Amino acid sequence: MRRVTGSLLAAAAVGAALTAAITMGSAHAGARSAKADKLVVWVGWSKRELSVFKSVVSEYDAKHPEVQIKVVGSINDTKITNAIRSGNAPDVVSSFTSANVGVYCGTGAWVDLSPYLKKDHVDLSQFPKTSLYYTQYKGKRCALPLLADSYGLYYNKALFRKAGITKPPKTFTELAADAKKLTQRAKSGKLKVMGFDPFWGFYSGNFADMTNYAPLFAATYLDGKGKAILASRFAWSKLLRWQKKLIDYYGYDKVVRFQAGLGDEFSPSNAFEVGKIAMLMDGEWRVAFIAAEHPKLSYGTAPMPVDDAHPNLYGAGSVNGTIIGIPKGGKHADEAWALVKYLTTNDHALAKFSNGIRNVPSTRTSAKSPELKPDPRFQTFIRIFNNPNSATAPITAAGNANLTLVGRFTVKWQAGKVKNLHDGLKKLDRQIDAQNAQASAGGGPP
Amino acid sequence: MSTASVPVGAAALVRRRPPPAVRRQRFLVAVANHSLLIAAAIMFLAPFAFIVLTALMTNDQALSSHLWPHPFRWRNFSDVFHQAPLLRWTLNTMIYSVVATIGVVVSSVPVAYALARLRWRGRNLAFMVVLIALMLPPQVTVVPLYVMWSKLHPFGFHFIGTLWPLIIPNWLGDAFSIFLLRQFFLTIPEEYLDAARVDGCGELRILTTVVLRMAKPAIAAVALFSFLYTFNDFFLPLLYVGENPSHWVLSIGLSEFRSLRQVQWNLTMAATLLVMAPAIVLFFLAQRAFIEGVTLTGVKG
Amino acid sequence: MLLLMSPWLAGFSIFFGYPLVMTGYLSFTHYDLLSPAKWIGWANYSYLLHGDPQVWPAVVNSLEWIGIVVPLQVLFAFGVALMLARARLGLGFFRTVFYLPALAPPVAATLGFVYLLNPATGPINTVLGHLGIQGPLWFQSPSWAKPSLALLSLWGVGNTMIIFLAAILDVPRHLYESAELDGAGPLRRLRWVTLPTVSPVVLFAAVFGVIQGLQYFTQAYVAANIAAGQASQAGDTINNLGYPQDATLFYPVLLYQHGFVNFNMGYASALAMLLLAVAFAVVLVILLNSRRWVHYAGAVR
Fold it and tell me: What is the value of pTM for the model shown?
């Protein structure tokens, strides 16, 4: 979840502390003194979303006088790694970059949760399979999912009506055609409204590492042995060529100029919310943002279009989530675990959190909770999340660094700097493999 | 350019009014020169002007191509303080700069004196080492230094996340200041020092009484540069307090200002101006000292 | 003597000598600060030379900066100083105007420039638009990002310019007069009188510029992050260093990325060793020619 809102871990902390009282966990510190232990929780959310998180955590805090919870928002992965490696870690950490779980689990930066899970008899099957995948690395589980994300299509109904389009596109060919119909230019040729912006790196939907488009083309990054296969999988070339064709239609420079004048993704001047972009691939949280910032916007949600050659994929999408765990060097591991357990498994906490920030509930029971407030536009994303063809980014020893390499390539490609796509992808594969080898060279997980 | 010349043989001592042709040439040259200067001045001032104008706009105007604020939003300058803990950052920066500068002066003066005026074996070698330390990029030592600080936990105190790893090394000598002061001390005539030695003063006393008094401008220059350098420091604070917002200095805070509030450019520019202000104000108050200090280091070095 | 030198001796050993040796040691290990350093021999170096796709762009960027922008800075500062030296009216005013930008903290100045050079809504392109020119993409274009940084650094040459100005004004009058007597025009006088006399200062400024260029970090780092955010690139979870397309990825930025973003400290140490080798070579060249420069050493940070 790449968003910036406050975390609601506090409320879940209440439930977790209760369970902590029962389970005595492993031997770390664990001294339960008479006065309240201070638990420090780091999360990535900020502002509105942070206050929702804080309200969830405060419910836990109120029921657990033996802990006093302090929530810190706006945390990113650099801060987390910094803190852990310098010995200054908080008690609970949460990250939006599930791709880094390979680093966190592989290096032991986040502690192995299996002893706790076993002690408390936590049933892992309550979590969806994909979420289980992006919270462990090579069998070592050091995180649990805390609400999940899925990506779908947001489209501006008013602009659709104006352009005479009646329903959202289902294939990429239709997407490109609709995008061209919806685009408006000024007399000078400058772009005024873009139908669909496929620029690699633009907002979260278009992460340059292509993770959000991969499931739509059934494209996989690694083979069974963990080697990169972008060159041999035809789906990647197809995706990249489609993307470049659309960029060239707009004009690369024109797109860059247009984007430089857009508002920030998480500000009220978000390009989709103010009608500068007609169709946007974004995460499910956007529903809450629009409700808070532009409630009168006439828009709809649908699954993203898919590769023409794989129409059966329609309804799937890219899936991800916030991960939460206990950092190495944290001082109150048992109480921290209690809080984590509450936040990730307690139906009430998850439902309340999900309602507040409009993220997908991450357990099967909470997804059916009567507390959830229904919203048809939000339902789209729950369906996408549960679609069997939805996929997430690969987890490797180098973590996000692999995806950074992919991103370097795609932005060069769209700028027209890559002469031969196939050769470029082959070189990229080699770079990824070398990087993974270098990251595991220290005797980390092979 | 001018091709006319004073006739050979005319004594330079006789300052006759140059002929009208030459005068006209010189006038044109001066005009051209001044026009260039004015053009350059406009280019140098333009960024400041635009920043000031943007700092007075509303957010929407700042995001558009408007050049002139409509209306003037003076509130921005106070809003900035609500958006971000500017005062705390300033406090952190001041602590860092002031304590580090004092440390630099206190520790570098004796070393520079020993290198300049005392005679001992290995003096030239030591000076060469100082020079080398001065010229190598900090990046060559930054990794092990970080590791060292992260492993030190005396009484449970964590150095990473505080500004101490930046301040402490400045109390053990700073290569640049040592270099500067040594060059300056070299220019102090030996006679003064000999006179003091004859009077029976030990080296330490000579240093504190005679030399210090004479070296005031150099010490002032060193203090000034140290202060400015630490005030503007970004790389080292990024490493050590980057992950601890309560200890951020102004440079870090300003670079993060945009992400704190999902960027409002008008406020960001207002914050930028506020951060630029102290140095500029300081300059206007102490113009002479500034220019002299810079010149001193450059020419006398 | 030992007492006077002691602060520096301690400081040097702890904060320079020891880390330098450790950098060498760490470069042969795989170290992420969580588990003990593991010896892996030459693996880091072979990855550096063969595996890491970002090393070559970083090296080229830094070399371009040193080879093109630093001489540009020296020339520009010298040109401005020349103009100032000839100014009859308002010397103080112009001098202040040209010096002020050098006082702006690097982060603040970079932030200002990224905003000003926004290709869509920035004032510079707006003004150019009124003049009928379509402004380039500045920080959003890989071919214009470095020139944008170069413009930023030229804006701040005030310190160097002041030093040049002092040196130019210091040239003894009688040298000009005798040249004039011999029939030398202004250009000739510049070439044969001014330049030779101030050459040590100019040379030193160039040397200093190269040393600074090898450490160039702050402006590139801040510009990359701010420009990426401005282009609506996704935020926090993305590594924006070098934006766009590695154009602003200078060697120190690369080192920072590997050492303090990826926490690949062994590899970062290997990168540091390479930087050390290059910097040391530069230092040797300087020291071997120090006779010419050592009196004019000292400059501004």
Answer: 0.86
